[in-house]
Design brief:
elongated, five-stranded antiparallel sheet, 22 helices, alpha+beta
């Protein structure tokens, strides 16, 4: 309904008829409500111009336009929403004058200097407002004569003592009444069913249910903006599926509004999507696992064990989203790509089968369960989530959206750019890595593990790596430099093992390159160590082939510190500009060296997986030699 042009007579008549039809037991109504039901009218007689003039003379103010128009149709109203039982007409409206002493506390809070202007504007509300509630569930309806729009409308503020929220603001009396009609609609079906009343179906419900059906078709056709607008209106009337569908659009980034409907076991998506998403939200919020009430047998007796298992696997990072059909097969394939870091390939697999996805029921418009999968959720970047929303699916047709594009940069030079490994910061991260030819990622622990049988961890987020591998470690040695390496594919026939921000610094006399050990099966291996945060920039490259060292060099602070073997001409430090006197020049030289390595060997490492995804990890052999005769080292024991 267009708020600026309310047809008050038809609007109020329709509301009255809907209310009367929803109350089937006349003997349970008060005499006034029983009369309203018989007359099918919740209002009163129209106020005359003399009535309105007398009211304005008594109050000393002309009333705002939409309230005056309402009074001309009905001089008061019963059941405005669920908690205001009688609304004032010309005789009952009065200035509130802070009769309950609420202003002192509210004004002090609202008037704080740090509050936004719209909050501070409420100071004095209780003293100046016109009170319209006559009978209510401790709910105040206040017209604010100092919050006036360009159309002359006064804002309405509604506050209930049993609500924690600040007063809710409506820009006009008309907007307030429409919202109360919507509020009544959200409550009426539940009340009618509890009281054994008639089925709650009327013109409004039929109109809004038809809008939900159109919204669902629009969403499945890729028109999510159109769908969201229809669903937002239907949500205000509490129509079935409106919350749920709007929530799915919001989860994929298509609208800022969200539904608030909680998961229910009767929903076909309860176990496959809703609970996993709730578990992921709980994990990301940092709240303790004890807040997971879905495994409470008193609340969800039939799904307790499954809910507990879902929470555990989401926390461990082992949860798997398992839809059916061709889409489910593609999800499995995409997960295999993502767990070795190839997030772009994973998205290509998913993108190709989105049109084949099928909903589980009328409350389902998108495979949002992907967002609970620990490997696939990072693949769905904001741009890709919108592309998913815009892709026709579920049997509907429409134009295909423009591809969101790949996220992983080519080459290796991006590693030295500010914020490359920490997108939320502008600083440059230290790192070290090994590129290995002819070896699959899951074979790297056998070559480089800290001990025989070193296992790969489950896919881990970067901030969980140390906690997983060394949660109980109490002894630390200054010579035992074992890296915690994330592994994945680095290109055709290449794998990588990568550590961000090594705890140890690069020490040339003690450093032992893992390149020979990594290349032992017969291929090539490249080791790169880049360090900038310890004061003096260091860039090291060493290579091995067939278990034999081939070349190595180390540049520290613009000076070639060591060089061995036949360094490829493309990597010659002087030619790349490593002798630059400033750190920026040396970073530029490092970028050129990295891109040269990428060109020579056809390798890269996936930025999205390293920064936002999950990768398998293992603890490597030490990158430093043990102390020799007469050398000292430090051991620290904790606890």
């Amino acid at each position: 309904m267009e708020i600026k042009h309310v047809d008050w007579l038809n609007f109020l008549a329709r509301w009255s008829e809907e209310w009367a039809d929803a109350h089937g037991h006349v003997d349970e109504l008060s005499p006034e409500d029983a009369a309203a039901r018989r007359g099918r009218w919740l209002g009163a007689d129209p106020a005359t111009e003399a009535d309105i003039a007398a009211m304005e003379d008594r109050l000393g103010r002309a009333m705002p336009p939409s309230y005056r128009e309402f009074l001309r149709v009905s001089d008061g109203w019963r059941h405005a929403g669920g908690f205001v039982w009688k609304l004032a007409g010309t005789r009952e409206a009065r200035w509130h004058n802070d009769e309950m002493g609420l202003g002192e506390d509210f004004d002090e809070f609202w008037g704080e200097e740090d509050n936004p202007e719209e909050v501070r504007a409420q100071v004095g509300l209780w003293s100046r407002a016109l009170q319209l509630d006559v009978e209510s569930d401790i709910t105040f309806v206040l017209l604010d004569p100092e919050d006036v729009g360009p159309d002359g409308e006064w804002a309405v503020r509604v506050w209930a003592s049993w609500r924690a929220e600040a007063p809710e603001r409506y820009p006009s009396f008309a907007a307030f009444m429409i919202a109360m009609h919507q509020e009544w609609h959200t409550l009426a079906p539940d009340r009618s069913s509890r009281e054994g009343g008639p089925t709650f179906v009327n013109g409004t419900t039929r109109t809004q249910d038809a809008a939900v059906a159109r919204a669902r078709t629009a969403a499945l056709s890729g028109r999510h903006e159109e769908a969201a607008a229809l669903l937002e209106e239907a949500r205000k009337y509490g129509r079935p599926y409106a919350h749920e569908l709007l929530d799915q659009i919001a989860q994929l980034g298509g609208t800022r509004g969200r539904g608030v409907q909680m998961p229910h076991p009767d929903n076909p998506r309860f176990l496959s999507e809703q609970l996993p998403l709730k578990a992921a939200d709980l994990l990301n919020s940092g709240w303790p696992p004890e807040d997971w009430h879905y495994s409470d047998p008193a609340v969800f007796p039939d799904t307790v064990q499954t809910a507990a298992d879902i929470q555990r696997t989401v926390r461990e990072g082992t949860y798997r989203y398992r839809p059916g059909g061709a889409f489910g097969e593609a999800v499995h394939e995409a997960r295999e790509q993502a767990r070795w870091g190839d997030t772009d390939a994973a998205w290509q697999v998913l993108r190709a089968v989105i049109p084949l996805w099928e909903p589980l029921g009328p409350g389902h418009i998108a495979p949002v369960g992907l967002l609970a999968d620990p490997l696939l959720a990072p693949v769905l970047t904001a741009e890709r989530r919108l592309e998913l929303l815009r892709t026709p699916r579920g049997g509907e047709s429409g134009p295909a959206p423009a591809p969101a594009g790949d996220r992983n940069p080519d080459g290796l030079a991006w590693l030295v750019r500010p914020g490359a490994l920490r997108p939320w910061q502008t600083s440059t991260s230290d790192y070290r890595m090994i590129l290995v030819e002819g070896i699959a990622p899951d074979e790297l622990p056998a070559l480089l593990g800290s001990s025989p049988g070193t296992p790969l961890s489950p896919p881990l987020r970067q901030w969980d790596v140390t906690r997983h591998h060394r949660s109980g470690q109490r002894v630390f040695s200054s010579y035992d430099d074992k890296a915690l390496l994330s592994v994945g594919r680095a290109g055709p026939d290449w794998s990588f093992a990568f550590e961000r921000d090594p705890s140890a610094g690069f020490e040339t006399p003690r450093f032992v390159s893992p390149a020979p050990a990594a290349s032992a099966p017969g291929g090539r291996a490249i080791v790169i160590w880049h360090e900038r945060r310890r004061g003096t920039p260091v860039f090291h490259v060493s290579a091995g082939e067939g278990g034999t060292p081939r070349y190595a060099f180390t540049v520290r602070g613009g000076t070639l510190e060591t060089s061995a073997g036949a360094v490829p001409v493309e990597l010659a430090p002087p030619a790349l500009g490593f002798d630059a006197p400033d750190a920026d020049g040396q970073a530029s030289a490092a970028a050129q060296a990295l891109d040269a390595i990428a060109r020579i060997h056809g390798v890269t490492v996936p930025r999205l997986a390293l920064t936002e995804g999950r990768l398998h990890t293992f603890e490597s052999l030490s990158w430093s030699r043990p102390p020799g005769p007469g050398e000292t080292y430090t051991t620290i024991s904790i606890g």
